[in-house]
Amino acid sequence: MDRILAVALQLLDEHGAEALTMRRLAEALSSGTATLYRHFASREDLVAQVVDQVFAEMRDEPSGELLGGGELRWQNACRDMAHHMFVVLGRHPGAARLLIDVPPTGPNAMNQRERSLAILLASGFEPRMAARTYATLARYVLGFAMQLTSAPGEEQHLFAGLDAARFPATHALASALPVSLEEEFFFGLELMLKGLGALRARPGPSPPDDPSPL
Predict the structure, then answer these.
(1) Which pLDDT score is estimated for 151?
(2) What is the domain range of residue 79?
């Protein structure tokens, strides 16, 4: 089973989410699809188990949420979780697309979710806010990870030749643009953590749901 999942993950990494089918996997294993159906009930089951293999790698990343005297530091825990997810999905960019369609409910994903929610609850987050915090951070990471599957690298001097008279602000910042995906990710993550800290410190219930579309 370990070998099957390893080959499936390799197929995903090399050829993308669309290539992860029972037929393609059977070919990569020099086997038949009937053999695979002894291990997986369907392609959806295969995808779910491959996704959980990716979460196993997130589990193996070092964690720094427990600092001095065992005190829980939720900011560090959230930062670590988001960072490790981003790093692992960077190694397996095809997995990000699978996570859109498949809720991660395998044992490794469940353990990560449980651990993260437990830290938030122990740090004083009320239950609904803890759930929203975890979900928002996870989707934030997924959104950036999705961009890792697009064409790599932006041109370093993309804005260097702009007309300073027409675009004075952009021209003035041309040496700082475009912002790298990694820099944007970490900058946005810090903004989210500061905002969550302010929201957590505010007395009263969590803000109501906003029914308006995005």
Answers:
(1) 52
(2) 2-201
Q: Does some domain include residue 23? A: yes
Residue 50 lies in a domain: yes
Going by DSSP bridges, is the β-strand pair 66-67/71-72 parallel, antiparallel, or unpaired? antiparallel
Residue 68 is given by DSSP the state: G
- Residues 6 or more apart whose CB falls under 8 angstroms from that of 28 comprise 7, 10, 11
Q: Which CATH number fits the domain that encloses residue 131?
A: 1.10.357.10
d(CA 63, CA 99): 23
Are 10 and 20 within 8 A, CB to CB?
no
Instruction: Report if pTM > 0.90.
Output: no
Kindly give the parts of the chain with pLDDT less than 70. 60-72, 102, 149-156, 203-214
CB distance 55 to 7 below 8 Å: no
Rounded-to-integer distance, Cα 100 and Cα 143, Å: 10
